[in-house]
Amino acid sequence: NGNGNVGAAFIDNYNFNLVGQTDELRTVAVTVPTVDSLILTFDLAHKNFPGFNDRLQVLVSSDCGATFTLGTNPVFDRSGATLATNGSSTANYTAPAAADWKNQRLAIYVGPGSPFTPGGVIYIAFRNTNAYGNNIFLDNINLSAKYDRDMQVIAVLNPTGTSCGGSITPQVTVKNNGIQTINTYKVAYSVDNGTPVVSPVISTPLAPGATTNVTLAAFTPAAGAHTFKAYTQEPTSASGSGEQV
Q1: CA–CA separation, 185 vs 151, rounded Å?
Q2: Which residues pair with 164 in a beta bridge?
Q3: What pLDDT does residue 195 have?
């Protein structure tokens, strides 16, 4: 298919004229880990047949599939032109082009007040409601665990390799892996598992998925081999504090 893989799930609405018929593609049982959210991503390709509004919903069940609810944020419940990823077509849509594929990202909240709780089991369903319109393709369905606030050091820019003596000014790249904007955080490092050197509070907001470079206090190592470790501390957002790596 057009998104680089050898196959995709296919829903035939073009040749199936039983309007209102629902069909589902369901995941296996998923045990919810101790996190704030589960992130569901998938690739979608669809061209709607004008006037015939097929519908696709992403639903979640916490009772072994007896009932399903729109338990995602944002809610995925689209039909007709809003479901289409690259315009409409009256022809039988059988071969999505690369430009037709659009990645979708949903957060299934599993925190306080959610029916989906850590340790519980959920099923996720992609429900198609037929309107005798056009075909829908799904691919690369993935589920990952996320914290609302999750900071990580993803690269050490300095020190690297061998230093020929003198002072070293560490610099690292941090990333917001969570789903909330991080308003404040700290970055710490240690040499040879010694006493951590902690930065002042960094108060430049970092949006979800964003990265930034942080320069830390200099140190002067003794001659020889050393181990350098860096990590984040105390990430906070509008709703509290969270994970650090």
Answers
A1: 8
A2: none
A3: 93
